[in-house]
Each structure stands twice: as structure tokens, then as C-alpha cells.
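Hi R.,

As promised, here are both runs. First protein below:
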Amino acid sequence: MSEKIEAAVEKYVASWAEPDAGMRRKVIAEIWAEDAIYKNPFVEFHGRKGVEDAVQAYDLFVATKGATFKVTKVDISMDAVRYTWEMTFPGAAEPEAIGTQVVILDENGLMANDHQFIDKAPTGMEELVHVGLDV
């Protein structure tokens, strides 16, 4: 089971850099519960459509700045998953942003409740907070 969960986390984080919105939507439908709740420090999103709305990393960081995302650690405890990720710009020695997610899985193993913590905020995030965008 843990391999399946780790694969879902990797797939989800990879979707942040997916240019095709339809593919991002497909990934979200595969690994998120229909009634999921996604929360970052600023905004709360409901349902798969809400998760899709929250995943704006491609438009904000990949298309415009060439960012890449990678999972750096996954911990699993029963139905709880904690994972960390990094966002890096081309040529950068250090990640531009680092985050931790804490996810509760539903009885089917789908992501049901996700809390995002920003461990290192990307430059310019302050402006995004005011318009309620997820980063």
C-alpha cells in the first residue's frame, strides 16, 4: 500500500508542472476524493474542481519561469501522509520554494483532506496572497 501512496504523491506533484490542464484534471480525478478539501495557509478549496483550481503552479511558475518540482520525502502513518516538495528554477543552487503537505486518505485510499504548509515561500508570494492564489 505504501508504494501506491508514494506513487500517487509523486504523480500529484508532477501534475503541478503538467502543461495540459486536461491531464492535470485526469490526475486529480485518479487520486483525489470527489469531496476532497485542500487548504493552504491562505485559501480553502472544495471538491476535485477546487483542487484543480488550486493547482496553478504551472501557470505561475513553470510556463513563465521554467520551475521544476520534486518530492523530497514521504512519510505514511495509517491513513495520514506527510510529504515535502521543492520547487527549483533552472540554474538555481537552492530551491525557490519548499513545502510540506499533510494529507488524510479516505477509505478508498484517495486524498481527502490536504493541508499545505509553506516552509520557504517563493519570491513575490506576498503579492499572490492578496489575490488568493495557491503557490
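And here is the second one, sequence first, then its C-alpha cells:
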Amino acid sequence: MRAAVAVVTCVVAAAAGAGDPGRRTPVAVLTVVWGLRLAAHIARRGRGHGEDPRYDALLAKARGNRNLYALRMVHLLRGALVRLVSLPVRAASYGSGALSVLACAGAVGWVVGLAFEAVGDAQSARFKADPADRGRLLDRGLWSWTRHPNYFGDFCVWWGLFLIACEAGPAAAAVSVVSPLVMTYLLIGGSGKRLVERHMTDRPGWDAYAARTSGFFPRPPRRSAWDRTRTGVRAAAPTPVRPACSAVRSGPRSAASTRRPARS
């Protein structure tokens, strides 16, 4: 939906003669690429699995008409959220002037974010498809550096678009900052990280994984206390002492072998 907003905004701005084509076209392309990748991932993930269980759980709270409840709590709320989150795209589309260092930094942030999303989702899909990993926690690849590489990628994408929008002027920056702030709240404290981890805390090995892996911002995994103890024991192990005499290696000689021959 956000990709559609970007395309419509780009077309309307071009028809009105507002903004710089060298700015609004790249912003629209970045948003569409992000949206198409996410849509393809969700379609592959949901193939053959029916309705999202989170959607069913939400509708279970409905009092009265479930369709009206879904319209009010899902569709209208999502539409308002899309308009709010797409503020940087609209501000950048109507901005004027050539792209500068700030916009380049925003584009780099977008690339980093898309890479984290795509690689993290691909690693998760591969892990879930392997029957040998059933019942285990994914703690390899990007998932060893952060427990939510896909959410961190989304975070980078929208802060990157905000940096591009900042070049449209102070007013555009002041209005657009609401978008990445809202996204950050949703990803960390709203329906993202917090909701996912609520359903993961009872999984075997979760406490150890959470202790060594960052909750959001990537960093190298911490070594557990058991690993540090094992390393210390290995380092303190005594070095084998090499025997000083070859006779010890070959064993004691017999009395006959040590007796000198008698002189005639």
C-alpha cells in the first residue's frame, strides 16, 4: 500500500509541475522496490497456510458484527497508518533542488535496511523449510547478531527515506520525522519485536539466545558464561611433559641385556 502511495504521489506531483523529477523519481523507485519485495515475501510465506493467526485472534475480540470490527480496527486503522508513515515520501516528492550528501546518506541507509530485510527473511525461510531444524531457534547468520534483522532493516529503510525528505526544507523535516518515529515505536514496542517475543519466551533455549544476541541493533553475539568457563578450562589445561630419557619410553631393560659379557 505504501508503494502505491509513492507512485500516486509521484504522478500527482509531476502533473502539477511540483518538485524536482531527480528527487521524486528515485524516492518512488526506492519505495516501490521495498514494497514489492515485502509483498513477494509475504505471499511466499503465507502460501498454503490460510489466514494469519494474528488476524483471527484480533477478530475473536469483536463484539457484534465482525466485518464492521475488521473495517474499523484493521482496514481504516491501516489506511491512516499508511498515510502517516508515507510522509517522507510525499515530502521528498514535492521538494526541489539537487540531491546532496544527506540524501546519499539516506539512500545508503535504505540499501542497508533492504539487505537486512531480504537476507534475514531468506535465512528464516530456509531454516523453517529444513525438517532437521523443527522445534529449534534460528541463531545463525544475521539472526546471531540481532533477534530481529527484518525489523531492523525496516527501521533503516524508513529513517533513510526520512533523510532524503529532510532536504526538502526544515518544515518538511519537522513533519516527516513523525513517520520514522512511529515506525520505530511499532517495530520495537508495538506489533513487532514485543509481540513476537511474547510468543517465543517459552521456547527451549530462548533465554540463552536472548542473553547472547542483541534485541534489535546488530552487534557480535556475546559469549555465554559456559563458553567462557570452557575456554578458561581449556587454556589452563597442563601441557604434557615430554620424557627426558629414552629409556623411560622403551621400558626397563632385562637383567640379561644390562649384564656385561665376562672377559676370557
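A quick note on the second one: Residues 101-129 form the longest helix (29 residues). Let me know what you think.

Best,
J.
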